[in-house]
Automatic annotation (TrEMBL):
Alphabetical list of Pfam families matching this protein: Med18
Organism ancestry: Eukaryota, Metazoa, Ecdysozoa, Arthropoda, Hexapoda
Family membership noted in the UniProt record: Belongs to the Mediator complex subunit 18 family.
Gene Ontology biological process: regulation of transcription by RNA polymerase II; termination of RNA polymerase II transcription
Localization in the cell: Nucleus
Protein name per the record: Mediator of RNA polymerase II transcription subunit 18
Annotated source species: Cotesia congregata
Coiled coil spans: none
Gene Ontology molecular function: any one: transcription coregulator activity
Length: 201
């Protein structure tokens, strides 16, 4: 057990030194008397500092049931420079056991949607390109009765990299130009998309 912990710590230090883990926390701490906590809470509510909802995705390979499940955290898109060629957001992937759904449910998470995706994956250096068809989750989990959500394929071009490597977005733009006019790969404004979708429901 001790050697396993030591190995994990060494791996973490190596990841930090290699800038693989990009997130940093800036911290200030203090205390407030019990008699003043309601005043503090009232003031904080006035500022409106609420956390955005956390988005977690669980993936598994249906054709390979022995493979571990994958839990992915996706952060909010960075506002940054509007001229940037690609959406930039934090992303953390963790391999898990097949009980991850039950674990997240016990933690208070709720299932928003579930779907099946099938398609093709290509690599060009650090870039990953997926061409995939999205299917509704069949009733009773019978895979033979899958129904496609649309008559088109979703095409995604992505790169995982440490913070500060904005030149990657330009490389992605240049590569995307080579796929025109078959497909127009562009930066999606998620905030605008959510505003358009919300009134429908």
């Amino acid at each position: 057990m001790a050697s396993a912990i030591s190995s994990a710590v060494d791996s973490l230090h190596s990841a930090i030194q290699s800038n693989i883990i990009p997130n940093q926390e800036y911290l200030l701490q203090g205390s407030v008397l019990d008699t003043a906590v309601e005043v503090l809470l009232h003031r904080l509510r006035g500022f409106g500092p609420t956390d955005p909802p956390v988005s977690l995705r669980v993936r598994r390979a249906i054709d390979y049931p022995d493979m571990p499940f994958q839990l992915r955290y996706i952060g909010q898109p960075e506002l940054g420079d509007k001229s940037r060629a690609a959406v930039v957001r934090s992303s953390i992937d963790v391999g898990t056991s097949n009980t991850v759904i039950e674990f997240l449910t016990e933690m208070g998470c709720r299932l928003d949607f579930e779907y099946i995706i099938r398609g093709y994956m290509f690599r060009k250096g650090r870039m990953k390109i997926t061409v995939s068809k999205i299917f509704k989750m069949p009733q009773g989990k019978v895979m033979d009765s899958m129904e496609a959500i649309s008559s088109s394929y979703l095409v995604e071009l992505s790169v995982l990299a440490p913070r500060g490597q904005d030149a990657i977005a330009e490389d992605m733009r240049v590569f995307a130009e080579q796929l025109k006019p078959l497909v127009q790969l562009e930066k999606i404004d998620y905030n605008r998309l959510c505003k358009l979708i919300r009134p429908i429901f």
